[in-house]
Amino acid sequence: MPWYEEWFDRDEYELVYQQRDETEAAQVVDLIERLVDPAPGAEILDVGCGRGRHARALARRGYRVTGLDLSAHAIAAARRRTAEDGLDVAYRVQDMRDPMGTAAYDGVINLFTAFGYFEEEADHARALQRMADALRPGGWLVQDFLNAPHVLQSLTPEDKHAKNGVTIEQRRWVEDGRVNKEITLHDNGATRTFCESVRLLTLDDFKQLHQQVGLQLVQAVGDYDGAPYTPDSPRLIMHAKKASR
Question: Which residues make up the CATH 2.20.25 domain(s) of the chain?
């Protein structure tokens, strides 16, 4: 089983990434609105929506949102939290390599490095093609990915900390063009280990992928405040556009 089919289905995922909260989601949506200026009530597809924190933040601002994710567990949590908040978001369980619709959305978002997972390079192009196909002519894509040069410069090989009484050990390394993480959790004598592995795609890689699927990069920024992108930026956040016709 690929690592992403197991890890995102686990409650432990939320514990490890507890700091990625509703406040950060609102900050990201602020950035999307500055980059794109979506029309009121725009139809937006959240690809790799996870537990729906960005989808809910968009719905609160009046956008019509659809979220899709491979993890049935994450989608169930997203539906529950969206209902609790009194919001309206459509969710579905789906692999991003499968069709998402044709010219069905004004915008697509793909956030928090919900990309670069696959072993086969063609699968990355296939997933991005599905996103492009889902856009209406003139539609936009905002993609938030790790910044590969920054990762290579600043990778912390190991760390250890506690959250909610659980000790979390993380080990990181780069191999074969991918950044890998082994996450071990110690809780009341029980030990569980999970893995992550993401392709170190660069801005140039994305430019080539965008061109291949009919998208054009409009701009790239380097953090959630919208600072200009540099190789030292903590993030690679790209705004791309589909041709009008």
Answer: 151-196
